């Protein structure tokens, strides 16, 4: 990795919010307002959005990666890592590993004993970093089957962003049943097993 990179908290770099939104929305499209709502509460006491910046002399730093660490109110000894992303041109250079390592260090500093995440299609990446499959966590107290159902409805069959930014069960249930038209049936997935959402866990030392 030859590039000079740094990791900063989003709330310390508010001028990079727009770039962060673009990075996330290019991968997982959603409205700017919804995206803003999911990252603007970054603060020093969690949730924290971490940015991986590539430092370019005399030019504004490029936001090349993001990951968000949140508390799990029902499981206070664990934290959740989500929205892990490296921009397409910088993948395969070790930045994803670096970002996750920094997240884990920060989580350990907060006193968490383990880190949880969910993924559809990046199991091998997380396994390489020492994550193992585990039971679902309920961030909102919702049954995992309900959340999974919503996740599977992602556009274009693209793996959606992992769970925690999904609307809570009671709200989404109301919207899907009461106000939204039913979506057309999704085409058959060619690889159901590899895109099924799983939860993964890593104990922190
Ligand atoms: C997943 C992602 C963050 C990985 O970032 P990255 O910078 O490319 O990963 P790294 O270069 O640090 O890879 C670390 C290791 O994982 C491996 N790896 C990375 N992506 C992998 C994949 N999709 N499948 C299998 N192994 C993978 C690398 O080969 C490397 O292995 P090595 O240490 O033995 O050489 C990146 O591909 C990404 O942003 N994807 C789109 C968003 C996304 O799906 N995020 C995950 C949401 S759960």
Number of helices: 7
Query: What is the overall silhouette?
Result: globular
Spatial sequence of strands, sheet with the most strands:
1-2-3-4-5-7-6
Helix content: 25-40%
Written description of the protein model:
By secondary structure, the chain is of the alpha+beta class. The chain has a domain of 134 residues: Gcn5-related N-acetyltransferase (GNAT) (Aminopeptidase), CATH 3.40.630. 31% of the residues lie in helices and 22% in strands. The chain contains seven helices and seven strands; from the N terminus they run βααβββαβαβαααβ. A seven-stranded mixed sheet has the order 1-2-3-4-5-7-6, sandwiched between helices. The chain starts with a strand and ends with a strand. The structure holds coenzyme A. Coenzyme A binds next to strand 4, helix 3 and helix 4. The site of coenzyme A has 17 residues, from strand 4, helix 3 and helix 4.
Topology:
Layout: E1 5-9, H1 17-27, H2 32-39, E2 48-54, E3 62-71, E4 78-86, H3 95-109, E5 114-119, H4 123-128, E6 132-134, H5 144-152, H6 169-179, H7 192-195, E7 198-203
Parallel strand pairs: 4-5
Antiparallel strand pairs: 1-2, 2-3, 3-4, 5-7, 6-7
Helix pairs in contact: 1-2
Bound molecules: coenzyme A.
The site of coenzyme A has 17 residues, from strand 4, helix 3 and helix 4.
């Amino acid at each position: 990795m030859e590039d000079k990179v740094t990791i900063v908290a989003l709330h310390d770099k508010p001028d990079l919010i727009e770039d962060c939104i673009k990075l996330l929305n290019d991968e997982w499209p959603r409205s700017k307002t919804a995206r803003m709502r999911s990252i603007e509460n970054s603060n020093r006491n969690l949730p924290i959005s971490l940015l991986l910046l590539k430092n370019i002399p005399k030019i504004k730093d490029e936001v090349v990666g993001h990951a968000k660490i949140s508390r799990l109110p029902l499981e206070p000894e664990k934290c959740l890592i989500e929205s892990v992303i490296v921009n397409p041109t910088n993948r395969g250079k070790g930045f994803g590993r670096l970002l996750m390592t920094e997240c884990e260090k920060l989580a350990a500093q907060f006193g968490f004993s383990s880190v949880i995440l969910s993924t559809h299609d990046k199991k091998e990446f997380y396994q390489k970093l020492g994550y193992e499959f585990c039971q679902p966590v309920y961030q909102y107290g919702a049954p995992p089957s309900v959340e999974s159902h919503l996740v599977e409805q992602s556009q274009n069959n693209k793996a959606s962003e992992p769970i925690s930014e999904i609307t809570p069960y009671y709200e989404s249930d109301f919207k899907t049943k009461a106000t939204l038209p039913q979506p057309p049936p999704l085409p058959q997935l060619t690889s159901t097993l590899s895109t099924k959402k799983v939860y993964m866990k890593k104990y922190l030392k």
